[in-house]
Amino acid sequence: MFIPFTNQIISAAAAGLIAHWGYFVHGERDLQAANIARIHILAAVVLPYLKCQLEDLSARQAIRESFILDTAYVVALFISIVFYRIFLSPLRNVPGPFAMRISKLVHVWTNMDLTLPNCKMLNDLRAEYGDVVRTGPNEVTLFGWEAYYQIHGPESTCERSAYYDILHPMVSLDTTRDPVAHASRRKLWEHAFSIKALDQNLSLVYEYADSLVEQLHKRLGTPIDLSLWFEYYSFDLMGMLGLTIDFKNLREGEHPILWLWHVAHKKLGALNYAPWIKHLLMGIPFVERMKYYHQFMTWANDELQRNIQVSSAPAEHGGIKKNWNWILGDFVLVVAAGSDPVRQVLPCLIFYLLRQPSQLALVREELGSIDIRDYHAVQRLKHLNACINETLRLNPAVPSAGLRNPPKGGMTVNGTFIPEGTTICTPQYSLFRDKANFVEPEEWIPERFTTRPELILNKSAFVPWTIGKRACLGKNLSLMEIRVAAALTLSQFDVEIAPGEDGTKLFTQATDYFTTTPGPFDVTLKSRKTA
Ligand code: HEM
């Protein structure tokens, strides 16, 4: 069989167009990334072999011709994709940076720059392009309170976007994209977060906060990274509460798994914006960037195996084996979702209080008026609560995540039609710093939550635990952790920024990879009490 080479080139280019129009353009392909790569590599290897066999070419010539055909295929495919994204996509009229229309890789690349976290980058785009910005070939970022409620509110029928397959094949309450599975799992979790369960956790929260204070007392006068110490506290506490594992970060220094979690998170964080890259890398052995993630997962797997020997999954749900991806996913969720957000609030809160000594004095006055061992009294401290809220407003734990897809048939938001399959981003960071919602939005003014309510223009815009069917389950627990640790630390220590520091690394070195991880906060401590 002989086909003229020119016709072969035309056929290869046509195959590229067919691949785009027949396959790639029809929906999400993130989870198939590794298989797509495998099929293409296989085709590239088989083609020269077939050419040798069928056309009687020398190996050298077969490879040369195959290379030309591969190039024709790839060029046609990519030209078609780029043309579609610029001129034909249903999002073509939505304003946004030109490069972001063409590829999500631009977003990934931008987020490799640690000096500009994703939430700030998106906020800058709003200033340039308005309330609806195209931030990817198939993604829009929406600003404003109405859009947030439309996407996340109780009436919303939006579903989680491809980003949430990030743990695939594992799945957790916080990542499942199946609304039915989510609703039934959430019921199980709600028991664990009920007020009754919370009261049972109280003594453990005090125990770990006491352990933190004890360790800090041993380090008086020497510079320490308070951000890290708060992480030890929240990680140890979540380990014990959620997993019954004592990580002993507080007593014995950083547990290897915490270190591993940090590295894996840093290495993979920027890839969140194009989930297919992670799924592709997962399919390739020995990729350096994935090494720490694999190690973390192996640890989680082993640790869970050990843990599970003392419990059992209900047989009616198919037992442990069938539920393994869920059990492992929830296990990882507890470590990540439970620890990072609390760790984020505490050092930021102390930073603001140090910047505004009159606010610190007010909080201490409140603390002095109660028995801080009585959590119900701590819980009612108006100014402390206002300071926590104001800290969360300026530093949301999940500043730009919570990505969603519109329901079947698409939806109209802010006057723009968003077709189904589009990823929608609604950054809390921008919502909480919107001057339509808060007066002097960039300033830390706790009184807006107490004596100066006029500084809040729209109460409904303050939703750090988000709203709707997927709102945070850990709200009350997290507030308990924050209040108790803040109360004990502020009443026991005078905190000063460490020599040579100004404390701002806490913000300038923070990362926004789903949850925020704050930068270091180097301080020295002096004891306020000897008793
Ligand atoms: C200041 C602390 C915290 C804040 C501001 C916060 C915020 C949030 C937000 C915004 C979400 C929604 C994320 C999304 O849309 O994907 C979320 C989900 C969730 N959070 Fe938190 N969180 C905090 C602490 C905690 C803690 C301590 C836990 C305990 C394990 C926890 C457990 C969860 C769970 C289980 C979900 C998923 C709920 C669902 O899918 O139904 N959170 N959180």
Automatic annotation (TrEMBL):
<dbReference type="GO" id="GO:0016020">
    <property type="term" value="C:membrane"/>
</dbReference>
<feature type="transmembrane region" description="Helical">
    <location>
        <begin position="67"/>
        <end position="87"/>
    </location>
</feature>
<keyword id="KW-0560">Oxidoreductase</keyword>
<dbReference type="GO" id="GO:0016705">
    <property type="term" value="F:oxidoreductase activity, acting on paired donors, with incorporation or reduction of molecular oxygen"/>
</dbReference>
<dbReference type="Pfam" id="PF00067">
    <property type="entry name" value="p450"/>
</dbReference>
<keyword id="KW-0472">Membrane</keyword>
<dbReference type="InterPro" id="IPR036396">
    <property type="entry name" value="Cyt_P450_sf"/>
</dbReference>
<keyword id="KW-0408">Iron</keyword>
<dbReference type="InterPro" id="IPR001128">
    <property type="entry name" value="Cyt_P450"/>
</dbReference>
<dbReference type="GO" id="GO:0005506">
    <property type="term" value="F:iron ion binding"/>
</dbReference>
<feature type="binding site" description="axial binding residue">
    <location>
        <position position="472"/>
    </location>
    <ligand>
        <name>heme</name>
    </ligand>
</feature>
<keyword id="KW-0479">Metal-binding</keyword>
<keyword id="KW-1133">Transmembrane helix</keyword>
<protein>
    <recommendedName>
        <fullName>Cytochrome P450</fullName>
    </recommendedName>
</protein>
<dbReference type="InterPro" id="IPR050121">
    <property type="entry name" value="Cytochrome_P450_monoxygenase"/>
</dbReference>
<dbReference type="GO" id="GO:0020037">
    <property type="term" value="F:heme binding"/>
</dbReference>
<keyword id="KW-0503">Monooxygenase</keyword>
<dbReference type="GO" id="GO:0004497">
    <property type="term" value="F:monooxygenase activity"/>
</dbReference>
<keyword id="KW-0349">Heme</keyword>
<dbReference type="InterPro" id="IPR002401">
    <property type="entry name" value="Cyt_P450_E_grp-I"/>
</dbReference>
<keyword id="KW-0812">Transmembrane</keyword>
<comment type="similarity">
    <text>Belongs to the cytochrome P450 family.</text>
</comment>
